[in-house]
Amino acid sequence: MTFISGPAEGPATPDTTVLEGPHHYGFTPETAEYFRNHPPSGHDEVGDDEHPGRVVRLDRNRVLVAGPAGLQHLPYPSHGPAPVTGDWVWLGRNRAGEPAVVGILPRRTSLGRKRALASSTEEQVLGANIDVVGVVVPVDRPLSPNRLERTLVAAWDSGATPLVIITKADLADLADDVVGQVMLHAAGVEVVTTSAEYGDGLDALMQHVPAGGTVVLLGPSGAGKSSLINALAGRDVQGTGPVRAGDGKGRHTTTSRELVPLPGGAVLMDTPGVRGFGLFDAENGLQDMFADLEELFAQCRFADCAHDREPGCAVQAALADGRVELRHWESYRKLQNELAVLARKHDAAARRAYQREWHQSIARAGLSQRAAERYRHEEGEVRGKGRGRKSG
Predict the structure, then answer these.
(1) Count of CB atoms within 10 A of residue 262's CB?
(2) Taking residues 40-61, what's their average pLDDT?
(3) Cα(69)–Cα(53) distance, rounded to whole angstroms?
(4) What is the DSSP letter of 23?
(5) Per-residue model confidence as pLDDT tens digits over 118-154
(6) Under 8 Å CB-to-CB from 256, ≥6 apart: which residues?
(7) Which DSSP state fits 25?
(8) Which of 62-66, 147-151, 243-247: highest mean pLDDT?
(9) Residue 280 gets which letter from DSSP?
């Protein structure tokens, strides 16, 4: 790592330390400043063996990390939270002197969903430090408005900027119709139309990604994400597979989330095809996605309006005169109920975990107390036998 330090004597000067990081993976001057503001845990200054890095991919037993010297496979951190693709990390050495991830910086944005198991109340973080969430919509299959809205809610909630990317525009004459439908159901979100086959729309897409920024693609299998990545990267970095004619579904050619450097300094995060997108603690995203309904809520006569049959309900009035589609309202209610159910499950799970820990602590305390009493009893017997031998 290269350092440029100010004079040791004289008036205080701004920190001019230059941190060398993985520039091909989004390391910018702003990122370097973020690292300076978050030094390795327990350190006031950055050591000679500590460097900025970024998690490129998670493998089963190792983490692929990009650092100033290139890519390297490192073991998972021995303590602290588990890293995810896109994390900014401090690279250094562990106690054995081996190269290791020694710290994970706070995530500026985080894209997550509820884990796939129906009974789960945990979040699965798909990626971190993302600037743009590209929701991929192919034109060669029917549009699912509910799926689109659900994914956009998660995109808004991540803290990144949502973007709808329509793919395969060269395969159908219905592209204009799909664009119209998408704009209707994704109010407030920019829409770009692309064709990986002919390179159409790629420049327009990249105009939405800041310099050195990271864009993630979300969409079902066979949506054309891998072809789009290859077109953006200018080389074959992802395998592509055929799409079944019967249902429009494709093979999972992408099996893990991975960062792909793009010409010009931006970074793309590829993700496997997502069949479902369970929301997790996405109230803010829900409000952003359904901002039109949030405005109506404030116009209701009663502050605690349930938006059902109450007099003076602005939502019911908008439904009656066609300003709000019934499907749009039902989609909002469905997602709202889903989040409420998850919150109740999560609270119940937290209560059960607390009760288990409480009972375990009581049990440990009881065992410790019994062990102490047994120890005192045994010590008393030993001392008693000792006194008996002396008196004899």
Answers:
(1) 21
(2) 81
(3) 10
(4) G
(5) 444 466 788 999 999 999 998 888 888 888 888 888 8
(6) 57, 58, 59, 272
(7) G
(8) 62-66
(9) -
pLDDT value at position 148? 87
Handedness of CA 267, 273, 278, 283 (dihedral sign): positive
CB 295 within 8 A of CB 287: no
Who contacts 315 (Cβ-Cβ below 8 Å, separation ≥6)? 293, 296, 297, 300, 305, 307, 324, 329
Place of tokens 């706070």: 106
pLDDT digits (tens, 9 = 90+) for 195-232: 988 899 999 999 999 999 999 998 887 888 888 999 99
Instruction: Choose among 205, 309, 221, 304: nearest CA to 264.
Output: 205
Which pLDDT score, from 0 to 100, does residue 117 have? 44
Please, how many CA atoms are within 13 Å of residue 46, restricted to the half-sphere of its CB?
29
For residue 140, the model assigns a pLDDT of 83
On whether the CB atoms of residues 22 and 54 are closer than 8 A, the answer is yes
Q: What is the pLDDT of residue 280?
A: 46
Alpha helices in the chain (DSSP H): 29-37, 145-157, 175-185, 202-206, 225-233, 283-289, 291-297, 314-320, 326-391
Of 311, 179, 168, 191, nearest in space to 240 by CA = 168
The single residue listed with the structure tokens 């009035």 is 317
Distances (CA, A) of 107 to 42, 279, 358: 19, 19, 32
Other beta carbons less than 10 A from residue 58's beta carbon:
18
Do 52 and 67 contact (CB within 8 A), yes or no?
yes
Instruction: List the end-to-end C-alpha distance of the chain, in Å, as a whole number.
Output: 78
Give the whole-number percent of the chain exceeding pLDDT 70: 68
Helix, strand or coil, per DSSP, at residue 207: coil
